Amino acid sequence: MNQISRRQFMASVAACGSAGLLLSSGIGKAFAAGPSVIRAQSRTIEVNGRAASVLGLLQSDGSHGITLEAGQDFAVRLENALDAPTLIHWHGLTPPFGQDGVPDLPQALLAPGENYDYSFPVTTPGTHWMHAHTLQEQQLLAAPLIAREPAEASLDEQEVVVLLHDFSFKSPEELLAGLTGGTGMGGHGGHGMGPGAAMAPAGGMAMDINDVEYDAYLANDRTLADPEVFRVERSGTVRLRLINGATATAFWIDIGSLRGQAIAVDGNPVTPVKGSRFPLAMGQRIDIRLRLPGEEGAWPILAHREGAVERTGFVLATANGEVKRVATSAGIPSEPLDLSFEASLQSTKTLAGAEAGRRKEVILGGGMMGYSWTLNGKIWGSHDVIEVATGERVEIAMRNDSMMGHPMHLHGHHFQVVEIDGKRMQGAVRDTVWLPPQRAVTVAFDANNPGEWAFHCHHLYHMAAGMMTTVRYAA
Ligand SMILES: [Cu+2]
């Protein structure tokens, strides 16, 4: 299929109502005509047959999130149409300090009715996303942010963008209180050896996998009872751009019988890795290129909750492919996330060859008891700032001494995974890396974007319970 008919095909797919395909929304939109507007607003979706009042980040044409081309500036007016203060972080972009969207680092929350114009060059193309850096993230204040490489426009492949989430009819404040015992600190929230606990690794201690029980798991706001169906072509090529926007849930992505390969993580290209199951922690993204069979059919793409039976997903189906119902329970629990996929990754670009000028050790600690999570023994507020110097290559050597996995995210930079459990490597370039219990991962980054940048666990409640610090350097 040539490019023109591809575009026509995709346009017809869009016309059929696949709102999740962010087709051409914002592409090539003349920023000269002014910034794109993203409005933080409330909206209603249906979950498990009930109306759910959630939040969203919508453009005026109703599309969720934004797609733009690398090389263009990120020129976005954020409008707060909520009745509460908010601020949005551009996860995966590397704006100058001041436009990162983390409350008080340094920008203040926008009051209801307030706007802010963001403008900076997009230097890190790829599959990214935007989300509130507050408990509002749990209320689905999150959306795709896709920065396409211009060269990708000429590829004969269909793009499918899906944001995963975990959903509760409870408020995030209620969920947090359930974990902390309602005191902010202390208490145990009645967790114990529930469905998320157990599994005994080498040390024989119990490992905690999931600490929040949700009412549903969503893929583009939908469950498997009513999944989004993307119409695809026989023998076509599809690029999945998958975003784990869940606040407290890691997934295994399962592409079933299809043949696929991971081609990028957190927006950064990797040497393709074939597989049928790929781990995706909170905050992370994965691009998977799929080749569809030559016959009619329908293929569910599933996101299986780590260490549990629940799953969500969406369906790729040819024009006449029959879509069958997939149960929301897989019947048997999935494995906990591990580092075998991470260890197989090789970036197609490496950071500039400089030796690390500085190595900082960060111990991940804390636990379900008292629901306190720490970096180097400290919680946010009494944290030790990680001081580095402009221009140096910095390594952050993380070791997880806790019994729960943590997706660690550094703002303002992309880093390279250079060591797993003491073994040196030229691993993936990414912005969020998974630290399973009792494992060690070292990442390296170039200090080329001065400021004071959040560095934290991307499990929302771990962050809220203290698992955050900053990396700081002056220009
Ligand atoms: Cu964590």
What would you say this structure looks like, in words?
Helix content is 7%, strand content 40%. It has four helices and 31 strands. The protein has helices at 3-15, 172-180, 340-344, 460-464, and strands at 36-47, 50-58, 66-69, 73-80, 88-91, 115-121, 126-132, 142-148, 158-167, 216-219, 229-231, 237-244, 251-254, 259-265, 268-275, 277-280, 285-291, 298-305, 311-317, 358-367, 372-375, 386-387, 393-400, 406-410, 415-420, 423-424, 429-430, 432-435, 440-446, 451-457, 468-473. Strands 20, 21, 23, 25, 26, 27 and 29 form a seven-stranded mixed β-sheet that branches. Strands 10-9-12-17-14-15 form a six-stranded mixed β-sheet, with no helix packed on it. Strands 11-19-18-13-16 form a five-stranded mixed β-sheet, with no helix packed on it. Strand 18 (298-305) and strand 19 (311-317) form a beta hairpin. The protein starts with a helix and ends with a strand. It binds copper (II) ion (CU). The site of copper (II) ion has 6 residues, from loops.
